[in-house]
UniProtKB/TrEMBL annotation:
InterPro entries: 4Fe4S_Fe-S-bd (IPR017896), 4Fe4S_Fe_S_CS (IPR017900), Benzoyl_CoA_Oase_BoxA (IPR017634), FAD-bd_FR_type (IPR017927), Flavoprot_Pyr_Nucl_cyt_Rdtase (IPR001709), FNR (IPR015701), FNR_nucleotide-bd (IPR039261), OxRdtase_FAD/NAD-bd (IPR001433). Keywords: FAD, Flavoprotein, Iron, Iron-sulfur, Metal-binding, NADP, Oxidoreductase. The keyword Transmembrane does not apply. This is Benzoyl-CoA oxygenase component A.
Amino acid sequence: MNAPLPVQVLKQHLIDPEICIRCNTCEETCPVDAITHDSNNYVVDPDICNGCMACVPPCPTGSIDNWRLVLRADAYSVQDQLGWEELPGEKALPEAVDAGAGDEPLAALADTPAPAAPASFSSAGASVPPWSAAHPYVNLYTHKAPMTATVVGNYRVTGADTESDIHHIVLDFGELPFPVLEGQSIGILPPGTDAQGRPHHARQYSLASPRDGERAGYNNLSLTVKRVTEDHGGAAAHGVCSNYLCDLAKNDTVQVIGPFGHTFLMPNHPRANLIMICTGTGSAPMRAMTERYRRRIDTGENGRLMLFFGARTERELPYFGPLMKLPRDFIDINLALSREAGQPKRYVQDLIRERAAQVQDLLSDRNTCIYVCGLKGMEVGVLDALREVTMQAGQDWSILHEVLRREGRLHFETY
Ligand code: A2P
C-alpha cells in the first residue's frame, strides 16, 4: 500500500499539450467542470479537480493521464497551463515535505492509483472496447514527429449542386507502418499558423476505411471530410483544416499524427452484430466497419448489420450510390432524410422507433454492439428511442444501458 500524501502535497492532474488533439472529450466528461480550454490548450483547474478519473478512460490519446507532485501552494494555475507548449518536468519537493511523507519515498507515490471512476460517470457510452476488439495502436506519430502521407485520391461524395461539400480523401503511407482499426481516428496538421503565430493544432478525423486499407492490401486509408464554411450558429466561418483537405490535389503531401482511439472499436468475434447510427460525416466509421464486413462476406463469419443514416437529402448523403448497391441481405439500410422535397422530415431516432421490433431483436443478443457517430444533438434523441424500444418489449432500459456500457457495446462519437 502506498502511504497517503502529506496534506501540503498535491498530485496535480495535467494534460499534455503536445499529445492532446483538442477533441473536447475530457471537458465534456468531467463531472465537476474542472477542465476548460482556450484556443491554445485544454487545462485542469487544480482548485476544482478531485482526481475522480472520469475523464481518463475516454481520452483517445492518453494526453489526459499526466500527474505531477507539487506543493499545493505551488500548483500550476489554469493561466500557467494555458500558456504551455509542453508539460513541465517533475520538480523536486522540499526535503522537509519528503520526510513527512511516511515510510515510502515520494517517487513511489507518483504511482498511487487514483480512485476508480464514480458510478455517476456522465458519458452515455462505454469507456471500454467490446471484449473481442483487436488491439489498437495509438500515438505512433506525434506533433513533434508526424508522418508524411501522400494524397492519392480526393473525390466529392455529395451532389455537386448541394451545400454539403463532403470529400472522400485517400492518403497513402508508402513504406512506413501506420496500423489502424475501424473506429480509430488520425490527426491532420494543417500548414501555417494561427492568429497568435503558433503552428495550428491537429484536427481529428475518423477513418472511413477498414484496417487492411482503403484498397485491400495497400498501406493507405481514407477520411470523410466536410468543408466547413459556417459555424454551428450559421455565421460564415472558414474551417482551417477542412478547407485545406478538401482542396488537396493528388500527390500533395500531408502531415499526419496518430492513430487515436482505443474504445470505439468493432467486435472481432464471429457473428457479432452491429447497429450503426450516424449523420453526415459521422458515416466514416460506419463505412469502415461495413467494408470490413463486406470483404469477408463469403466467409460465413458475419453477424447482422443494421444502419440508420441521417442526411438532409439523398444528394447530401455521403456515399449514397455505393451504399445503395450493397446487398439487402448483407445490410439493413434505413435512411432518415430531413429535407427531401415531398417527404416528411425524419431523423434517425424516428426510424429506430419505426423498426422497433428488429432493433429490439438485435439489442437482446449479447453479440450486438451499437455505434453512434455524428451530430451531438442526436445523442439524446437516439438514447430516448432506444429506451422506448426496450420498454415496449417490457424490459428495463436503465439495466440494459448499464450492461451495454459495462460490456463496451454502446459507443458514441459526436461533435
Ligand atoms: P436538419 O435538416 O434538421 O438539419 P447536417 O447535414 O447538418 O450534417 O445534418 C445531418 C442530418 O442530421 C440532417 O438530416 C439534420 O437534419 C439531422 N439532424 C439535425 N439535428 C438532429 C438531431 N438532434 N437528431 C438527429 N438528427 C439531426
